[in-house]
What does this fold into?
Amino acid sequence: MGPGRHRARAVTRWILTHPDALPEGDRLQFEAVLAACPELTTLAEHVGSFAHMLTHLQRDQLPAWIGAATATSELPSLRRFAQHLERDLDAVIAGLTQPWNSGVVEGHVNRIKMLKGQMFGRAGFELLRKRVLPQPS
It folds into this structure.
């Protein structure tokens, strides 16, 4: 990787990380990448405003965000994402309104996938069941 060239994975991580949480070296590299690519600057701004809206449950800002993201012709993937949000607007608004989340369920799903991966597919359902479900004492 030569100077001025950054791996897509690193740039993606920088975009998805809160600016205050970026180490100084990453922040400087990220600023250099943004200065060289206006499309990434636009994308980073949209991602940042979307993240702020999600973390602060600001559903009232959603229509304006969708409108702005849909209007970005240089970012077709962002435009499609915004259009999908618009199609499922009731569910998205509920997600920005309701106090419930599926974090606990997702944690259990990830744990089960990890256990299954540890067994490398060698075990059947019975062994997986014994590893996942509590055993009666």
Observations:
- The chain has two domains: 8-95, 103-132.
- Residues 38-55 form the longest helix (18 residues).
- The chain has eight helices and no strands.
- The radius of gyration is 20 Å.
